[in-house]
Design goal:
mainly alpha, 8 strands, about 45% helix, disordered N terminus
Length: about 270
């Protein structure tokens, strides 16, 4: 009873609390899960992410920035201009920047090199504002070009392996006033917040689940979120300071989750509550 009262109090305060599904019968748990699945299925036919995809494709092909160039020569890992299949192999090592980059950080590099934008300025711009919104739209279109393909992040380069280990350490690091870590919510199966199932991201959680679903349109906020913003909100819920857009630790966390999702089918950009 005491733990249940704590959980209700935490929910009222807006605290993210996860616990095993012990209080429900299997039939009730199944009914709840089925209801949520049906709700998402109904929304899929009119996923507003399609609008962002169209905008992203336009941004990719349109000459912009101080250099008045398009992004069609941007190398996302499979060669200049190759978009199809790139998303499911990111983050990865890039020889030109000598860094492991996710989709959003790689777009910043291309926007700076090819178009003349200031990558640091974009990274410091609030989400959904200015060129930060352009990065999100580009991520929506690029990820959509790999929809239905299997996650297959490379782990051949030493820095890719190092990023995975860094991401693993960050995933399990506990701290802050709530003594939370990423693993507090996503470290084992059978947890949820309210009616939201929480996938176990330490292993492949299944097709279109976890990493393989982002970017995603958030119905609750009416916005499209990339993985960087998703991580930003996770740090907020843990009461951690945000480490910065496209920082090494956020990219490393993406590597850890992406490698663990090997073989999962991408449905990005998905739709979320």
């Amino acid at each position: 009873m005491r733990s249940r009262l704590f959980a209700f109090a935490a929910i009222a305060a807006g605290t993210a609390v996860a616990w095993p599904l012990l209080a429900q019968t299997p039939a009730a748990a199944k009914s709840t899960a089925d209801g949520i699945a049906e709700y998402r299925k109904m929304l899929e036919d009119g996923n507003p992410a399609e609008l962002f995809e169209a905008k992203g494709e336009e941004l990719w092909k349109t000459p912009r920035g101080p250099k008045q160039a398009s992004l069609e020569a941007c190398d996302l890992g499979l060669g200049p201009g190759v978009v199809k299949g790139a998303w499911v192999q990111l983050p990865r090592w890039f020889p030109d920047t000598r860094k492991v980059q996710d989709l959003e950080s790689r777009l910043l590099s291309c926007m700076q090199t090819l178009q003349g934008f200031d990558a640091a300025e974009i990274a410091a711009t609030p989400f959904d504002k200015g060129e930060q919104a352009s990065v999100t739209a580009l991520a929506a279109w690029i990820s959509s070009m790999s929809r239905g393909m299997k996650m297959a992040l490379p782990q051949k380069h030493p820095e890719e392996k190092r990023s995975y280990e860094l991401g693993k350490r960050a995933f399990f690091f506990r701290g802050g006033p709530m003594d939370f870590s990423c693993a507090s919510c996503h470290g084992e199966a059978g947890k949820r917040i309210r009616l939201q199932d929480l996938p176990d991201l330490t292993k492949n959680p299944g097709n279109g689940v976890g990493f393989a679903a982002w970017p995603a349109y958030r119905v609750s906020s009416g916005e499209l979120w990339g993985m960087q913003r998703r991580l930003n909100d996770c740090f907020r819920q843990q009461r951690f300071p945000y480490p910065g857009f496209a920082s090494d630790v956020t990219v490393a966390l993406a590597v850890y989750m992406g490698v663990n999702a090997k073989g999962a089918e991408s449905i990005a950009p998905a739709i979320k509550r």
